[in-house]
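hey so u asked for the seq, here:
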Amino acid sequence: MSRILFCEDDPAIHKLIRAAMRNTPHEITVAENGSEGLRLAKELHPAVVFSDVSMPVMDGFQLADALRADPELAGIPIIFITASVQRASIEEALRRGATRVIGKPFTVAQLRELVAEFA
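ran it, structure tokens below
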């Protein structure tokens, strides 16, 4: 069983994540923003972090910067979830430490494939 951390502020996406991860062997935790996500990452040391780019309090880029700056968390794969799939946005996400970028809306199958690959 792997721990997976999702940082997402949209309640509809929370429901999709929980539905997609139902009946999987993974422990799923959902944070409402990047600040909460950073706290939970320090506490849980997840196998992978999925993070929305645009969130209140601390956005996904700031979260990625903080994770990459912490030697204990720097190696955790980060998968950005974003509605902006323009080339410049994807390049910025990769520059900020993303392992992968997935666009919104995404499917349950896409999410499960990424979880299988990284968790």
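The longest helix spans residues 11-21. The chain has five helices and five strands.
lmk if thats what u needed
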